[in-house]
Amino acid sequence: MGVFGDFIRWLPTYFFPKICYGCGREGWFVCSDCLPKVAKTLNELICPNCQKPSPLGLTHPECQKKNGLDGLISFSRYAGWAKEIVKDAKFGLNPHWRAMKELAEEMAGELANRKSLIVNRKPPTIIIPIPLHWWRKMKRGFNQAEIIAKPIAKYLNLPLKTDLVERSTYSLPQTLVRDASRRANVRRAFSVNKNIKELPDSAILIDDVWTTGATMKECCRTLKLAGIKRVWGITLLRA
């Protein structure tokens, strides 16, 4: 695209300069002083069912359920500047995607470099971002899980599938639902695209935040009932 392409890429940085989400200084989304203020959960992985520490983020054998997740990896705590980045991306203006995308690229780089993580030790076949219902995606203009999934698929050299799982039921945003009711809120919210005849043996589900895990667990249940044997979860943040 040449000079014109460079100009188009420069425009967002002019009208929406990088401002640190921690201290407000210009030049970074997260400056070096604020970066350590949010802990990396990548260094303290847990079993997705009992929430207790687990090597490589694998589901404990005694916690494994027939249609449950086989493991979970999350990058950072859902706190401080990290929490604000995701909230701003989801509910702010479109240019605020940039901070979340930059954080997702950092996570993808670390996943590719850490050979002991389950995504490298047992490579899944495909990357699947948790889908939004078509109405919510139209109102928001994007699916945040897809933005996070793209660099992960690129760094791990795995295919990205955005059409395999559909959000067939419109449900309340999980942030508006009490923790105890979140599983019921997304029950049977997903379905596998009937036009896709051949399913992979395994997959990685991608989402922005893990709180109770209800959304990802329900999506995992749908995939396993359809015939996918192994499903891992990766989230940008974890509460």
Descriptive overview:
The chain is α/β, with parallel strands linked by helices. It has two domains: 37 residues, no CATH class; 200 residues, Rossmann fold. Strands 1-6-5-2 form a four-stranded parallel β-sheet. α8 links the parallel β5 and β6. α2 packs across α3 and α3 runs parallel beside α6. The longest helix is centred in the middle third of the chain and has 17 residues. The radius of gyration is 18 Å and the shape is globular. The mean pLDDT is 87.
Question: Keywords, please?
Answer:
239 residues; alpha/beta; Rossmann fold; 2 domains; four-stranded parallel β-sheet; two-stranded antiparallel ribbon; 8 helices; 6 strands
Question: Topology of this structure?
Answer:
Blueprint: H1 2-15, E1 71-77, H2 80-91, H3 97-113, H4 118-121, E2 126-129, H5 134-140, H6 144-156, E3 165-167, H7 182-185, E4 190-192, E5 202-210, H8 214-226, E6 230-238
Parallel strand pairs: 1-6, 2-5, 5-6
Antiparallel strand pairs: 3-4
Distance between the termini: 42 Å
Under CATH, the topology of the largest domain can be stated as Rossmann fold
Tell me the series of helices and strands, N- to C-terminal. HEHHHEHHEHEEHE
- Hey, roughly how much beta strand do the residues contain? 5-15%
Number of helices: 8
